[in-house]
Predict the structure.
Amino acid sequence: DAGITQSPRHKVTETGTPVTLRCHQTENHRYMYWYRQDPGHGLRLIHYSYGVKDTDKGEVSDGYSVSRSKTEDFLLTLESATSSQTSVYFCAIKGGGWNTEAFFGQGTRLTVV
Amino acid sequence: DQQVKQNSPSLSVQEGRISILNCDYTNSMFDYFLWYKKYPAEGPTFLISISSIKDKNEDGRFTVFLNKSAKHLSLHIVPSQPGDSAVYFCAASAQGAQKLVFGQGTRLTINP
């Protein structure tokens, strides 16, 4: 298995509170991604990083921010959680060229009540 | 705008028969395609890929076919086994873009 760990694995939080999810890799891969999985939508890209302090938005970035201060860590922050952000969040890592696969973490199930 | 579409949310197949999962895409810049498999409470795992210079790639029981003119790819699993029951996602990327765009997924159930 690729060395990628997400924490926490499960979280319940209240509407309006900030939440940070962590992704940690031991593969020294350049690219890191945050996706969310929702029924009927598959996996949608939230934000991604192509290097330390280099990040860009994905297709569903509103309400989310990210930071990458070290190669191995990529943080996803929900600035003020809403019920629409209840989802399963997956981190992925990718090295090498464009024609390589990404490896996924086990996911974080987030419930906003 | 869904650039990668899996129009069948679910598929049920008899054990030992062939499973065929389909995927369509709209972006002509896509030139690398992947299939992922996902079990409940786990992350997606890479299954097989194909680049646009090929029209077929095989790996054991799994074969991916690419029809560029139709912007269509398919995953064939033969023979299907109970352990193949999972959600399958197709994904695509364009050269120079390090992002994977995923379809909605197809839930495959293999019946004994």
